[in-house]
Amino acid sequence: MAFAPSKGKKHLRHDEAKLRITSLMDVMTITLLFLLKTYSVSGALMKPAEGVDLPTSTVTQEPQKVLGLIVTPDGVFEDIAAENRVMIEGVLTLNDDNVITLDNLYAYLSTVQARNRELGREEKRVLTIQGDRGTPYRWILKIINTCSTAGFEEVDFVVYKESKYRG
Amino acid sequence: MAFRPSLKKKRQFVEAEANITPVMNLMCVLIPMLLTTAKFVDLALLEYMPPVIQETEETESGGPGQGGGSTELLELRVNIAYDALEISILNAVEGDNYTHLPVLPNGAYDFQAFQEKLVDIKERIVGPALSQSEEINPDTGQLEIVHIFKYEDADQIRVSAEGDIPLQVVIKLLDTAREYQDSRSVFQPLFPSPALGQFQ
């Protein structure tokens, strides 16, 4: 014998189940506004190199995409992704006090400039260095000297921006 | 006679809901795009122009100051030694024109005292601009006002450091020497043209 349906079930209304997304919309609106506020095209132009702890500075000059070098505690490298990075100068040469101009770096810079000339690209005499904050001064001096000898008029250091109003 | 009840009273109030699905779609596209291009670290460039080595040619009319400027040189030098900052002007190695700022007890360089010394040099030794002229900047092509000081190299600072001094210390020193905040909290230029050289 079948039981009679309960009174409660008999009067149960089958309403359409709706997902409440109002709170999700709130979160998304706030995230969107935050991202739009911090949106900057220059961020896409240059990313800090992997494995390099950049120094901090109060300068405000925006980075530009030109020929770059990466200076890590292991040496000087081409500015490309970490897995394909090619070493230009090793620690031994950089630490050698008898070396003033870095031959491998000079050859690399000359090759890049010659290739740019062949391809008819605009010849920029600006170079950026992403150097680790612990890079010894003697390395920096040799790199700058070599870049200057290779015809680069401006050598820029990539830094993390720091507020100059901070005490 | 009773009035017939208004039809409005019987109208059912259906809860109106905005269709926010297109807005959600837009957000689902915009947020990943903005997240990928977001700049969570702020990068900047510290520009450095290595000094051009020129063959100095002695002429009858005089040296470098023949364009109406001065011929005197301040020769402001800063040596970053492992244990101190050494500041000298006018090629002095001792006396009033030479300052030795030892590192603080915590091992850090005393950049505050360094900046105070530079401000003192700028105000007391260099002094205010004698005159100003308008020149076209060859790099930007724009007309710029150039101040002429008592010393030809009034905006230059020659920096040298011992071999193992880290890059961060050099950059901090360049930041300190570039400008300072005066009593009205306005940033004023100090010695914004550095030249890096060998430790002496």
How do the strands and helices of this protein lay out in sequence?
The complex is a heterodimer of chains A (167) and B (200).
Chain A: H1 7-10, H2 22-38, H3 42-45, E1 56-57, E2 67-72, E3 75-78, E4 87-90, H4 91-95, H5 103-118, E5 126-131, H6 137-149, E6 154-161
Parallel strand pairs in A: 1-6, 2-5, 5-6
Antiparallel strand pairs in A: 2-3, 3-4
Helix pairs in contact in A: 5-6
Chain B: H1 7-10, H2 21-37, E1 43-48, E2 77-80, E3 84-88, E4 98-102, H3 111-126, E5 131-136, E6 143-148, E7 156-161, H4 167-178, E8 179-181, E9 187-189, E10 193-197
Parallel strand pairs in B: 2-7, 7-10
Antiparallel strand pairs in B: 2-3, 3-4, 5-6, 8-9
Helix pairs in contact in B: 3-4
Describe the protein in words.
The complex is a heterodimer of chains A (about 170) and B (about 200). Chain A contains 6 helices and 6 strands, in the order H-H-H-E-E-E-E-H-H-E-H-E. Chain A is of the alpha/beta class and about 170 residues long. Chain A has one domain (about 45-160). In chain A, strands 1-6-5-2-3-4 form a 6-stranded mixed β-sheet. Chain A starts with 6 loop residues before the first helix and ends in a 6-residue tail after the last strand. Helix content of chain B is about 25%, strand content about 25%. Chain B has helices at about 5-10, 20-35, 110-125, 165-180; strands at about 45-50, 75-80, 85-90, 100, 130-135, 145-150, 155-160, 180, 185-190, 195. In chain B, the strands form 3 sheets. Chain B has a 5-stranded mixed β-sheet, covered by helices on one side. Chains A and B meet through helix 2, helix 3, strand 1, helix 6 and strand 6 of A and helix 2, strand 1 and helix 4 of B. Strand 6 of chain A pairs antiparallel with strand 1 of chain B.
